[in-house]
Write a structure and sequence with these properties.
globular; alpha/beta; 297 residues; four-stranded mixed β-sheet
């Protein structure tokens, strides 16, 4: 499907110079557009066979699948796999990765972002968004290790990796400042560059692209699943500390048990969900003062 960017990124890297092309898919609306733009460039350069896509699962924090009015709507992990397949990546070259930790019986168990917050003792903040590295970027980079070992032996040099992400300037001032292309890591094993091919796309352009996209967008973006009105939440992660108040209140209505888990972590660790909001106060507000209609619970 041809891409329709509002403007081209200022730098398009030479994709043929990389040994591994690694798009990171959140399953959200932006990662689908990113995948379309990136795979078009990869096919044009003749290097689509170097692509392995990754989805870093957030576990319980991800929006799950739902059944509404007899129709099933996929959760974001499934959407990430659909996004990868829709633009030509074979199923065995899409990897879902998650952080794990030793369980009581010695068997490793999923280590979700909420578990990390509980262990760390405080919630992520603007200026200290450790959640992005702990739950996403570092998990994916760990998954590169087996491939890098194999390629490193074959090539006899550091492996060149291009990390491709769907971050956009419209999402916030920190992302607006982030370069569309940069080198993020250099060591004896690999050289990692980062490319944001849709950095300059507007939110309206992304929504317009989805009008006739070959893959659905997450049900949570709508007031009710399938409405097509973009009147739901604006993020693919439930109860994100960087979300708007509207998003958080809507998420509380849609996922009340998850909100209660957040409140328990907040109570035990003594840190508030945000510097200006306590999740317990927001839950009370949603119950007593009104909140956006959840549409689905």
């Amino acid at each position: 499907m041809p891409s329709r960017p509002s403007s081209r990124p200022p730098i398009t890297p030479d994709l043929t110079s990389y040994d591994l092309l690694a798009p990171q898919l959140s399953g959200g609306k932006d990662s689908a557009v990113m995948m379309a733009v990136f795979m078009e460039a990869a096919r044009t350069a003749g290097v689509a066979d170097r692509v392995i896509s990754y989805h870093s699962s957030l576990g319980v924090l991800e929006w799950p699948s739902v059944v509404f009015d007899g129709a099933r709507y996929p959760g974001v992990s499934e959407l990430a796999a659909l996004q990868s397949a829709a633009f030509g990546v074979p199923a065995d070259r899409h990897l879902e990765v998650t952080r794990t930790m030793p369980g009581p019986d010695g068997i490793r168990m999923p280590h979700s972002l909420l578990t990390e917050i509980a262990l760390y003792g405080r919630f992520p903040r603007m200026g200290s968004p450790y959640s992005r590295k702990a739950a996403k970027e570092s998990v994916v980079s760990s998954a590169w290790t087996p491939i890098v070992r194999q390629l490193g032996r074959e090539l006899g040099r550091p492996v060149r990796i291009l990390k491709v992400m769907g971050l956009r300037s419209d999402e916030g001032p920190d992302r607006k400042k982030r370069p569309a292309f940069r080198t993020v890591q250099v060591n004896g094993a690999w050289i990692v560059d980062e490319w944001l091919p849709i950095k300059d796309w507007s939110t309206d352009a992304v929504k317009g692209w989805h009008t006739d996209a070959p893959v659905p967008y997450s049900w949570t973006y709508d007031s009710v699943p399938g409405a097509g009105d973009w009147a739901g939440t604006s993020r693919s992660c439930s109860l994100c500390v960087f979300a708007s108040r509207h998003d958080v209140l809507l998420s509380i209505g849609r996922r009340p048990r998850l909100a209660d888990l957040y409140a328990e972590v907040e109570r035990v660790r003594g840190d508030s969900f945000r510097a200006d909001w306590r999740i317990t106060d927001l839950i009370r507000h949603a119950e007593q003062c009104g909140a956006p209609a959840p549409g689905v619970v």
